[in-house]
Amino acid sequence: MYCNNCGQEVPNNSGFCPNCGAKINPQNQTTQDAQSTEPRTIKLKCKNCNATMEVDASKQEAVCPYCGAKEKILDSDAVAVEKIKSNTYKEMEYARMEKEKKQNAKNQKEQEKKAYSKSFLSKFTIIMMFICLICTFTAFGSKHILAGIIALIQTVIFAVSWLMGKQIIGENKKAVYKALALLGCLLIIPFSLSNQTHNSDRSDTAKNDFSKITWPTSELAKLIPQPSSNIGKINLDSSNYLSIDVGNITEADFKEYAQKCSDAGFNVDYKKNDTYYIASDTNGNRLNITYDKDEIMCIQLRAADTSDDSENSEADTAVANTGTAITTDNSGSDNPATTDSGDTQNSTTDSGSVTPELKEFLDSYESFMDEYIAFMQKYNSSGDTLSMATDYAKMLAKYAEFSKKADAYNTDEMSAEDAAYYLDVMNRVNKKLADAALN
């Protein structure tokens, strides 16, 4: 249709003329549309016979009805101007449509960004990103390089996923950021495996610290026989406490040594199984022997005057607790007794003489390790580990932090009481890990 004011062609259903801005009268649209369908005629003179003829302006050639001569129809200036205006309007219309298209795309993008910001996936990705970042620092800080690299990769993946979800980083396919978030979660598996490998490496490192030892000549050391192996490490040798780690010990060697200790007089109130032997002698000296899968036997002997028998019994139960302990009466007959699943944290040393700061840390460390073991057992037996991913990462971060602090202590720089209490707690924790098969 055409504008009533200037005659410019305007699109159907337009309210105003794009050329002059005049309001389009809808009542005239039907009439103009009908007129626009009629052919436009112009008058030309035949160059052959000079006759006047009316021809269709839309055609490029005219035939004279009088002489039959053919003549090309050339656009007049007015027609040329109209065509230019028409083409210009079309370009303007295309530009407007393109602008609207871009605006719609922008609006849709803003809506998607707002929806993602409020979604669970966005919050989960941010939480995992910071957890992995913490794990990165703690892993590298504890010289756990492989776990640190994996945690760093997870951090980058979660960060890129979040930036894609916020459309700060462009992507061709909208599902890419979801796939990245899933990949970051799946990397928890190799991170966990590398942690277990690191624990094994730490055990190997402990073995590397072993060397040929000479059995101590202290009064406590004389109360028990020498092991079959002289490879190991003397952790502490004092008048009231003896702690020695012995390497290259088989399970048969451990059982044979436990029997020798029993024959030597350590057969009062004893408790034993395939991985530990705990007993006292008639003078009240308390012996604690543990054995792990790395062929390491830990010997701890405490003098009688460090604590009373009732405390000893509770502490030894905590050390030996594997869910079911073997208790004995004075006659030595074995009686199975189910113990409480929660390990007591009483020390086999006189905790009153231990530095308060050290005791507070070691007690909190052992308490956390109980929580860690329970969680890892639940995690390993769960069929839906993805739902536990956040708690898993937090637990690993706390585990790395506690382990780093615990490893920083040096028993050579401690008092005898502090070192004895430290070794008690470490041995209890290591035994719990071995019993739970997490080491």
Structure description:
There is one protein chain. The protein has helices at 29-37, 77-118, 120-141, 145-165, 176-186, 188-208, 251-263, 309-320, 356-381, 389-408, 416-435; strands at residues 41-45, 52-56, 61-63, 70-72, 211-212, 231-237, 241-246, 268-272, 276-280, 286-291, 297-302, 324-328, 334-338. With 439 residues, it is of the alpha+beta class. The strands form 4 sheets. Strands 5-6-7-11-10-9-8 form a 7-stranded antiparallel beta sheet, with helices on both faces. Among the domains are: 45-74, no CATH class; 112-203; 211-355 and 415-435, no CATH class. The radius of gyration is 45 Å and the shape is rod-shaped. A hairpin with a 3-residue loop joins strand 8 and strand 9. 49% of the residues lie in helices and 14% in strands. It contains 11 helices and 13 strands. The model is unreliable at 307-350 (pLDDT under 50).
Name the helix and strand elements from N-terminus to C-terminus, one letter apiece.
HEEEEHHHHHEEEHEEEEHEEHHH
Strand content: 5-15%
Distance between the termini: 85 Å
Strand order of the largest sheet: 5-6-7-11-10-9-8
Number of strands: 13
Work out the helix count. 11
Helix content: 40-55%
Radius of gyration: 45 Å
Short account of what is shown:
By secondary structure, this protein is of the alpha+beta class. It is built from eleven helices and 13 strands.
